[in-house]
Amino acid sequence: MKPLVLPLLVFLASCSSQPGSTPGSLPPTGFGMPQIINVSAYDPKERQRAGVGFSQDDVSALQANGASGLIARAGKGGNLDEKCASFLASADREGMLPGIYYRVQRHVDAVAQADQFVNRAMSLARGRAWNAPALLLCGDFDGDLPLTAILRFMDRVEARTGVVPVAYLENSTPLKQTLSGADAASKAKLRRMPYWLALYAHDSGAGPVYPAPGNPNGLLKQYDVWSSWTMWQYGGVDWQGGRSRPKVYNHGSYRFPLYFGNLDRPTERNVFNGSQAGLQSFWRQHGLPLR
User: Fold this and answer.
1) N or C, where is the chain less crowded by C-beta within 10 Å?
2) What is the pTM of this model?
């Protein structure tokens, strides 16, 4: 997928004068750059300020604040997520694009996890009359996974669905070492999966092996697999001191507000590297058809 770099820079520059959203404000339009929320059984987080909330049964506040899609965790390491179906049905009612991800962990066979993921996706697809055209499929690969596990998960999902999943990768030193050191054939296979990166601060990820990547392009260079990225998770949430703490990239031209519009709680947030039309095409290409 060819990135639309100029629109992204325009979008991010528009955020530079707004280091944080107030409870009564809505986010910038994004200049055609769609925003996507991802959720799990840990959502919604606790209320932290005045504003509007959401639940697995009502995500209208996410849509009202500009979210174009919602990606819910289907499971991790052999265990299914109990809120997934409710979140997706709510998103579909609001006209948001639905997607699912599966956190692939080392202690369970990668193919068994892929089978659980696909079985869940197929069950969800049959479970309602969808408005959306497709259910996006994503693999969230733990930082200590071997290359073989990542490729086996990808291959199994594609073999059963005909869909190449999206690859979500953290700013992980072991993963960067594993993938950057892969042979040319393995890198070519990896590149078939669109790259969904996670980077919440310009100075995160520094260590004895790699400096802090600084921005998405720096992370691309450290992984040394993809020439461009498709989605960026710029906002994450940590649990610290008995409460959820939002972690949101805010540096240079990339200044995102701490909360999403007028939400009263933190949530994990992403931007798609393209237009609304490009998002629709991407969702169909890497999603299980729903109608």
Assistant:
1) C
2) 0.91
3 state DSSP class of 199: coil
Residue type, 209: V
194 CB-near residues (< 8 Å, 6+ apart):
1, 166, 167, 230, 231, 282, 286
Superfamily of domain 5-289: Glycosidases (3.20.20.80)
DSSP letter at 33 equals: -
Closest among 106, 120, 220 to 165, alpha carbons compared: 120
Strands, E assignment, the chain: 35-39, 67-76, 79-80, 97-104, 134-141, 166-169, 195-198, 231-240, 243-248, 250-251, 254-255, 268-272, 287-289
- 195-198 vs 166-169, strand pairing mode: parallel
Q: Are 118 and 72 in contact (CB under 8 A)?
A: no
pLDDT string in tens for the chain (291-residue length): 433 333 343 333 333 334 345 544 444 434 358 999 999 999 999 999 999 999 999 999 999 999 999 999 999 999 999 999 999 999 999 999 999 999 999 999 999 999 999 999 999 999 999 999 999 999 999 999 999 999 999 999 999 999 999 999 999 999 999 999 999 999 999 999 999 999 999 999 999 999 999 999 999 999 999 999 999 999 999 999 999 999 999 998 889 999 999 999 999 999 999 999 999 999 999 999 998
Instruction: State how far the Cα of 260 lies from the Cα of 111, in Å rounded to an integer.
Output: 36
Instruction: Report which of 76, 117, 71, 77 is spatially closest to residue 231, judged by C-alpha positions.
Output: 71
Cβ neighbours for 103, distance < 8 A, ≥ 6 positions apart: 73, 75, 76, 77, 140, 142
Domain boundaries, the chain: 5-289
* Tokens read off for 66: 């500009």
